[in-house]
From TrEMBL:
Family the UniProt entry places it in: Belongs to the short-chain dehydrogenases/reductases (SDR) family.
Record localization: Peroxisome
SUPFAM superfamilies per UniProt: NAD(P)-binding Rossmann-fold domains (SSF51735)
Protein name (database record): Probable short-chain dehydrogenase
InterPro entries with a match to the protein in the record: KR_dom, NAD(P)-bd_dom_sf, Peroxisomal_Beta-Oxidation, Sc_DH/Rdtase_CS, SDR_fam
Main localisation: other
Gene3D superfamilies per the UniProt record, alphabetical: 1.10.287.4290, NAD(P)-binding Rossmann-like Domain (3.40.50.720)
Source organism (scientific name): Erythrobacter litoralis (strain HTCC2594)
Keyword Lipid metabolism: yes
Record flagged with keyword Transcription regulation: no
A biological-process GO annotation: fatty acid metabolic process
Domain Ketoreductase, first and last residues per copy: 10-203
PANTHER family named among the record's database cross-references: DEHYDROGENASES, SHORT CHAIN, SCP2 DOMAIN-CONTAINING PROTEIN
């Protein structure tokens, strides 16, 4: 077994930490020496209402177990205020866990502007707002661990969740760009797609499955990715029920016509099977990998 991972002297912000996964993340960090900002707006599953009691309860749990924590009740949309709470209480920030979220599930043809906008505002814009407010501190100290919370609904698509899926994959795009911007400053940015029993999933999954999906199982991965000895960045992980795995992009070898690079639709149709054939697929990881194919074609052209 690996030696205990500790976060002594590390200041950790966990958004949406008044319940569900966020609470488990906060309790895990609290037990391991971190100083915490427990943020939660305290509304319901759909984002209606607000209350300070959810965050207060978790702060109390952490303190009574001997940990250090302060509460913040702002919406993640006001990320600067959450960061201000951390700086006022502890003077710095080391780790940002973007976890807060709500659902407004409805099929696309019935989705209102409000269903769409609210979900973008809380998930994508909220993750941006908190992370951007913390970013100067992380850059200045050349240290940071940022974790974004995506979802299988965004990665794979899911009926009735166009708003949520778009926001959750937007979060992955944000994380991927920030991982590149943070690289030279020792700021690692990773994304998790969890699956866990919570008020968000209690009406979606059957009881037998919910019993297996303990939210604290997800916190273990958050703990590792947030630790100073973990160098992973730009990763995307699925985690839940005692299973954890990394995802990556995969690209077919494709088909290239060469010469002037212009295809007719008939030619695409003719070569469709090789375009979609994943035999000997490649795994691009950086923007420049997009140019690989073009560079190969140009090299072939030069040889001709
Ligand atoms: P949850 O509903 O139990 O917890 C979410 C927490 O975020 C709540 O305590 C809520 O009050 C808080 N919150 C909501 N809006 C907020 C805002 N504007 N500002 C601050 N706090 C706010 O849900 P759960 O399952 O713990 O979800 C946590 C994260 O994991 C979410 O981002 C969710 O989308 C994501 N997720 C969860 C999955 C699951 O299987 N439970 C699956 C995939 C993603």
């Amino acid at each position: 077994m690996h030696e205990e991972l500790r976060y002594d002297d590390k200041v950790v912000i966990v958004t949406g930490a008044g319940g569900g996964l966020g609470r488990e993340h906060a309790l895990m960090f609290g037990k391991r020496g971190a100083r915490l900002v427990v943020n939660d707006l305290g509304g319901d599953r759909m984002g209606d209402g607000r209350s300070s009691s959810a965050a207060d309860r978790v702060v109390e749990e952490i303190r009574s177990a001997g940990g250090e924590a302060v509460a913040n009740y702002d919406s993640v949309e006001d990320g600067a205020r959450i960061v201000e709470t951390a700086l006022d209480a502890f003077g710095t920030i080391d780790v940002v866990i973007n976890n807060a979220g709500i659902l407004r599930d409805v099929s696309f043809h019935k989705m209102t502007d409000q269903d769409w906008t609210l979900i973008q505002n809380i998930h994508l814009n909220g993750s941006r707002a908190v992370t951007q407010a913390a970013w100067p501190t992380l850059r200045n100290k050349a240290y940071g661990r940022v974790i974004m919370t995506s979802s299988a609904a965004g990665i794979y698509g899911n009926f009735g969740q166009a708003n949520y899926a778009a926001a959750k994959l937007g979060i992955l795009g944000l994380a991927n760009a920030l991982a590149e911007e943070g690289r030279s400053r020792n700021i690692n940015v990773n994304t998790i797609a969890p699956i866990a029993a919570s008020r968000m999933t209690e009406t979606v999954f059957p009881k037998a499955l919910l019993d297996r999906l303990r939210p604290e199982a997800v916190s273990a991965l958050v703990g590792w990715l947030a630790h100073e000895s973990c160098y992973e960045t730009k990763g995307l992980f699925e985690i839940g029920a005692g299973y954890v795995a990394k995802l990556r992009w995969e690209r077919t070898c494709g088909y290239h016509l060469g010469r002037n690079g212009i295809f007719a639709p008939e030619e695409i149709a003719q070569h469709w099977n090789s375009i979609v054939d994943f035999t000997d697929a490649e795994h691009p990881t950086v923007m420049n990998d997009s140019l690989d194919a073009v560079q190969r074609i140009m090299a072939d052209d030069r040889r001709d």
